[in-house]
Amino acid sequence: MALPLGSCVSGFKRCINHISILNSIDDVSQSLPLYLQISERLTREIAAGRLADGTRLPPERDMAVQEGISIGTLRKALSELEERGLLERRHGSGNYVRARAATGIYSFLRLELPDGGGLPTAETLSVKVQNGPFERSHRIRRLRYLDGNAVALEEIHLDAACAEPLETPLPEALYRHYAEAFGLVIERVEDRVSMARVPDWVPASFSMAADDVSGHVARQAWAATGELVEVSETWFDPEKARYIARDSQGI
What we know:
Elements: H1 5-8, H2 10-19, H3 34-47, H4 60-67, H5 71-83, E1 87-90, E2 94-97, E3 111-112, E4 120-130, E5 137-146, E6 149-159, H6 174-182, E7 186-197, E8 213-223, E9 228-236, E10 242-243
Antiparallel strand pairs: 1-2, 3-10, 4-5, 5-6, 6-9, 7-8, 8-9
Helix pairs in contact: 2-3, 3-5, 4-5
């Protein structure tokens, strides 16, 4: 039996509510298409357990009308979820959530809102070429958002030998951009989580000040070729975000 519209699609409603916030973020033209924003948001809601396995979503037209989007946009989002194995579409019956290891555009992003999920977006603060940690590196500094809330700072060092030319403005989904623009597929990452002080380049729009103690993630990322191609640091506000790692495989 389907749950009432308001209860079984709270994650969907949170997704739509976030979309209006995008207009306040710089470089909005580099945001994901609307249908991918919806599918990504729902993917993260499923991964966080906010949309349970077996939940039957309301009729598509009801969902589209309530949220003020076209039926075509909604169906593209649901088709994306179906391709990921996260939705079963039964003719004459409805759409059912299939909770499993959720993989999406932001599957390597381990930060979530305190109650789970949250659609990631990003604002690029600066991009420059420098020496180190690779012979030549693209240094990218960004402010990361979840559902429009600034939750983290990010400094990325990308091996310039693998990504030339790196043109700006940069899209929000960098790993997707690496693959599409340079054929550079990030296959494996290693994160080390600790606490660290916020750097002095923190923008005023972030909730923490320079030298405040924040959550910290030091990452190394390897390409499908086995080469180390990116190292990064992320400083996150522990009041606004959590680092979450999930593994659906048994021991």
